[in-house]
Amino acid sequence: MRVSRVHARFRRARVSAGVPPPSTVTRIDERPPDLAFGAFSERAPWIVEPERLAWRRDLDAVRARVRGEVPVLLRPRRFPPAGRLVRVVRSVGTALALWYAKERGRPTSRAALSRRLRQSFERLGSTYVKLGQIISSGDGLFPEELVGEFKLLRDHVPAEPFDAVRELVERELGRPLADVFSRFDEEPLAAASIAQVHAATLRTGEEVVVKVQRPTIGELVRADIAAMGWLAPRLVGRIPVTALANPPALIELFAETIVEELDFRLEAENMLDIAHVLATTNQRAIVVPRPHPTLVTRRVLVMERLRGFAFDDVESMKAAGIDTSALLRAGLISFLEGALLFGVFHGDLHGGNLFVMPDGRTALLDYGITGRLDDRKRVAFLRLLVMGTSGDVRGQLRALRDMGAFPPDTDLDAVITDLELEGPVKDPTRMTADELTGELREITKKLLGYGARAPKELMLFVKNMLFLDSATGTLAPDLDILGEIAHVYTYFSEHYGERIAADLGLDPTAPVTLDLDAVRASFGIADEIDRLTYQDVRRRREIIRRRMGERRDRDGSGTAG
Question: What CA–CA distance (Å, rounded) separates 215 from 172?
Fold first, then answer.
């Protein structure tokens, strides 16, 4: 279903007659009628009626206008933007110079450089902290030392003074704080780069959380994006890893997400979109907090408060009788359904945006970054995954080309031949350090020769898949990954087989079977292996990491490339 159809469904959706108007907030004792529309909690503090929400008015035009800002901010410039860029270059340049003088070439070189860059981003403030947070979710996309350091940026953002928070909330809502809230905690529950969240109670008695934007973040973000837009193209091709990571695409992705994050009405709309997809697919294991019917503005978002276990508190979950494997499976399937069938998915999955309610359902929070795919890219994603499970290498490359990973005129057969994609599987754990390094260098060189880039949509998708991968290690380390892939494949075949065939132009009557040999090949394991747990994957990664580290230490290179 296209995103436009999702919006059309919203416009047609009406809940039962006799529901109080959205300005009337009442306790609902029976099953809330808005559960027919979205995957919300069973105990509703108010009822969501999409067509009656005044803050949704003209949001399609608002979203289009906000997205239109991005190419203006990133437009090619002959000369760099002054002011902010000078401070950025000074901060990052100093970090690089100190690393070069003191730590380059040592065994701890990469860790030292990552630490200095993280400290530089902290000094540069909210925009760079946000960029660092996005990088910190990119396990596998960025060097592990950099990811590890930048994870510290998730928790090290100082809160705004409460007087500034009060002033902004009162200005946005047009009323004194005491006229809306009977309680408003001065100490935030969490402080992030764009906003901070406070617990509060409405005068009508409902417990809520209030997301409040940092007062000057809008101007700072736009100045920083202009500076990044000038700098990013100048990094392309400097080092292989940077070229493949595609700095301009990363900055474009960052700009698109952060500019939309500056309007909380769009985030509230994202909440409704994903809640509706979850309800449409009957994924009731995931719960979206209800945005308030009237207390949503560009810079303030009041929403239902949900409670539960931290996402990594496995001990408490198991003590409560929660099946963590089932919880993980529901998260994976719902994410894939949203992305592959509806073109809408939560774009920033990490432990801080998830917690598990006592009844075993997962509360999904923070919708500032939400992936939206047009129909062409959605079908390309779908083809990539389906062809991957059937072993169709050419189909996978075609899908990647359609997503922009290769130029449109790329000779896919030549790519298959050059990269030996149809040859025997090479197990990286059985390679020496020299063989592994040589193989990676050769693959990188060939990909660059074909103009390969990591498309921004794919980066967002892969980032979420990497989180789900790491969540497996926390929630279900003994889960058989091969068996789980077979389960998910069967689920999609049974529920959406005809629709997927129609989207991909396949014969719906032709049998399509899961090629486990192709799945094994994607993990680089031999055909005879019939069970693969996360513990097995982690041991394999440790072998590869150790051998790569041995090669770096022996060569004394220690560079960030």
Answer: 11
**Gap between the Cα atoms of 59 and 218, Å rounded:** 19
Domain ranges of the chain: 66-156+217-261, 406-452+538-561
Rounded distance between C-alpha atoms, residue 485 and residue 514, angstroms:
9
Structure tokens at 166: 């009060």
- Determine the angle formed by the axes of helices 84-102 and 109-124, rounding to 10 degrees: 160
pLDDT at residue 518 is higher than 90: no
Three-state SS letters, 447-504: HHHCCCCCCHHHHHHHHHHHHHHHHHHHHCCCCEHHHHHHHHHHHHHHHHHHHHHHHH
- The pLDDT of residue 8: 45
Tokens of 112: 């030292």
Helix (H, G, I), strand (E, B) or coil at 31: coil
Nearest to 143 by CA among 554, 548, 525: 548
- pTM of structure: 0.83
Q: pLDDT for 173-221, tens place per residue?
A: 999 999 999 999 999 998 888 999 999 999 999 999 999 999 989 989 9
